[in-house]
Design goal:
The chain is α+β, with helices and mostly antiparallel strands. The protein contains four helices and four strands, in the order βαββαβαα. The chain has a domain at 2-104: Ribosomal protein S6/Translation elongation factor EF1B (Alpha-Beta Plaits), CATH 3.30.70.
Length: 148
């Protein structure tokens, strides 16, 4: 059996519970073909780089799979049929990533950073102009010829 990382995008207007049900449905397909789903990560609703079928956001979910090619092909066939799945991508990998994925680590880092700055993301008091140093473009040094 081969190792795969699989990410699929579900429409924004389905609920998180429906996305979880979709994940369980696809997991069952893999297990029916004697494969294993090592990890399922729900990344949440994220903005898309461009609109897909009039959707600007989507639910992102990652699967780490240990399955045969036929099991993955059947899961992808079911995804093509399902109208709630916008896109999917399956990559064959040499080994599966242990622990949280890069997306989950980024979310943890963002949460920690938000906690350090405070609930509303305050950055602290502003320093005075003299403490901040000179401006990038000192207007007093500009000649009249260099003015706009």
């Amino acid at each position: 059996m081969a190792l795969y990382e699989h990410v699929y995008l579900a429409r924004q207007d389905v609920s998180a519970q429906q996305v979880e049900a979709l994940s369980e449905q696809f997991k069952a397909i893999i297990e029916q073909h004697s494969g294993k789903v090592e990890k399922i990560e729900y990344w949440g609703v994220k903005s898309l780089a461009y609109r897909i079928n009039k959707n600007r956001k989507a639910h992102f979910t990652l699967f780490n799979l240990d399955a045969s090619a036929s099991a993955v092909a059947e899961m992808e066939r079911q995804m093509r049929i399902n109208e709630d799945v916008l896109r999917f991508l399956t990559l064959r990998v040499e080994e599966l990533e242990q622990g949280p994925s890069a997306m989950m680590r980024k979310r943890d880092d963002d949460d920690r950073e938000r906690g350090e700055r405070g609930e509303r993301g305050e950055r602290g008091e502003r320093r005075s102009r003299s403490e901040r140093g000179p401006r990038r473009r000192d207007e007093s040094n500009m000649s009249e010829e260099g003015a706009f």
